[in-house]
Hints:
Blueprint: H1 5-27, E1 31-39, E2 42-50, E3 53-62, H2 76-93, E4 99-107, E5 112-115
Amino acid sequence: MPDSPQDVHKKVLGKKGEKFAAAYLKGLGYKILKKNYKTPFGEADIIAQDKGEIVFVEVKTRTGDRFGAPREAVTKTKQQRYYKIAECFWLKLGEEPNARFDVIEVYEDGRIEQYKNAF
C-alpha cells in the first residue's frame, strides 16, 4: 500500500531537517561520520565527531510546536534504542569512545536548537 500524502510530507520534512542539522553541525566544526546509520536496533540520524567525542544525534523536525517541543518525542524507548545503536557502532569501531547523545530540533521556518547530552 503506498504512503499517504501526509506520510510522504513527514518523510520529506524529516530528510530536509536532517540535511539542515548536518550542515549546522559542520558549521560548528563537527565532522560528520555517518548519516542514517542502520543497525538491527534502528537507525541513528547522524553520528558526528566533536573534538574527542562521538556524538549520536537524533533529529526531530516539525512545522511548529503546538503539540509540544520536538525533543519531547524522544521517548525512553527511543533513548534505549540509541544506546544499542551506539554499542553496534562501537563494536565496528573496536573501542568504546567518549560519547554523548544529542537531540537537534529543526523547525520548518529554519530555527535549529541543539540539546547536548539530552539523554
